[in-house]
Amino acid sequence: METEDEIFLASITGEDKPGVTSSLAAIIANNGATILDIGQADIHNSLSLGILIKSPQTVSGNIMKEMLFKSNELGVQVRFSPVTNDAYTQWVSLQGKNRYIITLLGRKISAHLIAAVSSVLADQGLNIDAINRLTGRVPLNEGTSKTGKTKACVEMSVRGTPKDKNHLQAEFMRLSQELGYDISFQEDNLFRRNRRLICFDMDSTLIETEVIDELAMRAGVGDEVKAITESAMRGEIDFCESFKRRVSLLKGLDESVMQEIAQNLPITEGAARALKILKQYGYKIAILSGGFTYFGNYLKNKFNIDYVYANELEIVDGKLTGNYVGDIVDGKRKAELLRLIAQIEHLDLQQVIAVGDGANDLPMLNIAGLGVAFHAKPKVKENAKQSISSIGIDGVLYMLGFKDSYIEETKNV
Description:
Elements: E1 5-15, H1 20-30, E2 34-43, E3 46-56, H2 57-74, E4 76-83, H3 85-93, E5 99-106, H4 111-123, E6 127-133, E7 152-159, H5 165-179, E8 182-187, E9 197-200, H6 211-219, H7 222-233, H8 239-248, H9 256-263, H10 271-280, E10 284-292, H11 293-303, E11 307-316, E12 319-325, H12 331-344, E13 352-356, H13 362-367, E14 370-374, H14 378-383, E15 386-388, H15 395-399, H16 404-410
Parallel strand pairs: 9-10, 9-13, 10-11, 13-14, 14-15
Antiparallel strand pairs: 1-3, 1-4, 2-3, 5-7, 5-8, 6-7, 11-12
Helix pairs in contact: 1-2, 4-5, 6-7, 7-8
């Protein structure tokens, strides 16, 4: 007569130390039982290990006894919970449900934030499977970090089908505004783990200025050009028209001014780190900018960027003429260029990331698999899929699932 099997969960807690998992798994194996599932977490050297075991009824008692003795020997605690066949079958059926990744970004992660996000997920019927910290440990003294600016990221893996995805995302946006954090909500699919191209806007994205404003200040028309720039970035006037008006005001400016500005461009917080790591991991990087090729090429050479598409200023006898050469790179053109580069690189659009801050970035943000509004205007944030406003542009790395410990390990490879 065939012996019936039973299922039980072994929950092990205590101080983490080498040999706990191997010793307990060996007991299960030696008794001819099967591990149906296993998961382990380590928080501040405190172990939480779960092992779902299927064993013949005749050996279950022996497995539990041996695991109790071994746990006591190792200085950890083990607790056993029976699992019915129906409960296991229901759990298996949920494995095919939709999976999502929630990324929480900020200078530090608060209990209030975790509680609020968890509550929204529960209201939507989503179950949290795992929570991981992607950033390094936050120092007690916030001023002791190397950059002087701490950052913290927690990633949640959740499962289920949201009752109302639009309402869920609206709640995350509300919490972001109220609590001063960034909350990213993405499907956990194959494309998220296989993105290969990232397209950046330049001005106020990779650099902390609008270059045309810098040129205008040297030309003595700073206030006039800045007002046009801000209106265009808010989407109040057509980008192409605003571009022509601003460029015309630069007439007569000496070409040498461009070199001086390029050599002193203020690089955005986290940009150098993000660009270096993305290149190290094989990403293709593009600048798609409504700014100027002169400055885009300067960044290309500085950071080994693969593609630069921007606007070309006309220069005659060492002076800007107030005109431009070729087509204007506006929002529509940025989206076209993103598609073109994806085709050249043989990539699906879902494998492309776009990052920008202005209204003219929305077309490319909306067609990319991951579109990120970076320290963007309210209108842009409202219409983008994701946003980063609380930390530097290297926050994009965490949305892609990068973990600081892995980055540090490969830094010198």
